[in-house]
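Board notes (copied after class):
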Amino acid sequence: MQKMSETLTTIQAPIAEELVYFDKYFKSAMRSDVALLDKVMSYLLKRKGKQMRPMLVLLSAQFCGVITPATYRGAALAELLHTATLIHDDVVDESDERRGFFSINALWKNKIAVLAGDFLFSRGFLMALEHDDYNALKIMSKAVKMMSEGELLQTEKARMLNIDEAIYLDIIRAKTASLFASCCETGAASATEDAEKIEKMREFGEFVGIAFQIKDDLFDYGTDDVGKPRAIDIQEKKLTLPLIHILNKASWGERRKLINIVKRHNTQKDKVQYLIDYVYDNGGISYSKEVMNQYVDRALETLDFFEDTPAKTSLISLVNFAINRKK
């Protein structure tokens, strides 16, 4: 954990002072006059994550120009929306943990968790409207729409277990990469009017987001403690890239056997272990890493459009951090 912290500190160096200001700004954005809601918000603030999305907004702005008040509002909007979606996800998934701590629904039940998520959504949208940040609002609203569609598409396909690699990429492009792309696009748009630069940063964020989600899906087949139960995707009948690749090349008999495990035996440890071992032994993990690295390369190629700066160095390091992280 110490090593991870040091890596993040290095990445954050060009925006260290700006992140301090952002933290204060974000805390003020989450305050409420309702005591119960303020208590929930305080709990969330004490257990904040790596703040990758605000970092992407700030670094993208600095990369394309200078950080402005609109940049801070864009970063806060991104983090408010992201936090809201996590709270709602925990309710939908009936999850009692988030990042190793009790989830909001575990402590305060579903009703309060849903309302807390709704508060964060509305707070973010109102903040943008209060400052006429219509462009940022449009970008982020589109991301929320895509995230919802991505999750619903995954749910639909999980019922039928008829997902191929192209559909999988469509799902993660929508449910994860859309917000990464919107963070970079919002940050760039807050610092420049150059449409080509803004689009390049949007593309960069999308490629990073896809690589990030593939890495996240690989955790399901690992042995490290990553803050969620191992094989949870299999239990939820989510077909991710390692298994999709194996199903596409398996014999009819093996495919039927693997699908049967996912459908009917996804909580039986011995059968799930058989599936995991089969995925490893037949190249599902190595193939997924190859695809992940292809998107990393595409992200880094996008940055070649720009001159070398400290912000560019940090963005490159952030990409490497995203795919080498342990949780």
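Comment from the instructor: Strands lie at 97-98, 101-102. Residues 1-6 have pLDDT under 50 and may be disordered.
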